[in-house]
Amino acid sequence: MKQAFTLIELLVVIGVLTVLLAIVLVAINPTRQFQQANDTQRRSDVNAILNAVHQYGVDNKGSLPAAITATATVIGNGVGQIDICSDLVTAYLADLPLDPTTGTTDSTSNCTAATAYSTGYKISKSASDSRVTVTATAEVSGVTISVTR
């Protein structure tokens, strides 16, 4: 007499494996992992931009790039954006960082004159004490990532 699995036994095993796979996918949640990685990139980018602006200020006797105003404005070269690329790139940054999901550029370099770009990051300076703030919107919590110096 041959021993074999019945159809019911195979279906039960497949069902158990499906439930276990679903539990693992929920626990890992790859979408959330990518969002958290993007938020980590945003925090790094915000700090890099702020460090570059301050290094620019150090090298220019405390003067910050003239385009930075008290109104939080997206860094880019589109309408209503401020272009600080020529002030910062190559001297203080290799290239302006772009937001992982909302930043756009038409080429590999963000700062060529013929290239439209938008970093997705906002920058402003306080009118009273010239403290600079760079912000980004987090994907996971929706809270603003903000660094001020």
What would you say this structure looks like, in words?
- Strands 1, 2, 3, 4 and 5 form a five-stranded antiparallel β-sheet that branches.
- It is built from three helices and five strands.
- The chain has one domain.
- The protein has helices at 7-28, 30-59, 85-88, and strands at residues 73-76, 104-105, 117-125, 132-137, 144-148.
- It is elongated, with a radius of gyration of 24 Å.
- The protein is an alpha+beta fold and 149 residues long.
- A hairpin with a 6-residue loop joins strand 3 (117-125) and strand 4 (132-137).
- The N and C termini lie far apart (81 Å).
- Helix content is 38%, strand content 17%.
Strand content: 15-25%
N/C terminus separation: 81 Å
Number of domains: 1
Number of helical stretches of at least 4 residues: 3
Number of strands: 5
**Helix share of residues?**
25-40%
- Secondary-structure-based class equals alpha+beta
C-alpha Rg, in Å? 24 Å
List SSEs in N-to-C order.
Answer: HHEHEEEE
Largest sheet: 5 strands, antiparallel
Question: What's the rounded overall pLDDT mean?
Answer: 90
